[in-house]
Amino acid sequence: MAIKYNTCIIGVGRIGFSLGFDKKREQPASHTMALKANKNINLCAACDTDLQALELWHKYNRKSNVYTDCDSLFAKETKRLKRKLDIVVIAVNESSHLQITLKAIEYEPKLIILEKPVALNVKDAQIIQNECKKHNVKI
């Protein structure tokens, strides 16, 4: 029996989801489509502040839970799964990377996949790196 990694995605806009429908791009072109193509991934939840994008994502991912804020996602999914999330994919605007990545690190997933650029500046990147080391989270 294959291991299933409980995975969530934060940000279901272009790279997070909608590029998966672009017929001119090599597929999978979005994080969602790449995750769904992997039989070892359980895409259990997504989060976005854009309600329309989140609604559309949920239409194609009915078995997954949706949230409008990452605090709720992390708290409720950790409680529901009775363990930490394995993988957190962060595909939000880079101005939000630091805040959301630090929040994800607090919940100590095994891996964070962070869309580029990792941070707006070297100082923010160093903060992320230090917190990852402190909490033993790979990024």
Compact overview of the structure:
This protein is of the alpha/beta class and 139 residues long. Helices cover 37% and strands 17% of the residues.
Order of helices and strands: EHEHEHEHEH
| Fraction of residues in helix | 25-40%
N-to-C CA distance:
27 Å
Tell me about the largest β-sheet. Answer: 5 strands, parallel
Low-confidence stretches: none
Q: What's the shape?
A: globular
Counted beta strands: 5
Radius of gyration: 14 Å
Q: Quick check: average pLDDT? A: 94
Q: Determine the strand fraction and express it as a percent band.
A: 15-25%
Strand order of the largest sheet: 3-2-1-4-5
Structure classification = alpha/beta
Q: Tally the helices: what do you get?
A: 5
How would you characterize the overall build of this protein?
- With 139 residues, the chain is of the alpha/beta class.
- The chain contains 5 helices and 5 strands; from the N terminus they run βαβαβαβαβα.
- The protein has a 5-stranded parallel β-sheet with strand order 3-2-1-4-5, sandwiched between helices.
- Strand 1 (5-10), helix 1 and strand 2 (41-47) form a beta-alpha-beta unit.
- Helix 4 (97-106) packs parallel to helix 5.
- The chain is globular, with a radius of gyration of 14 Å.
- The two termini are 27 Å apart.
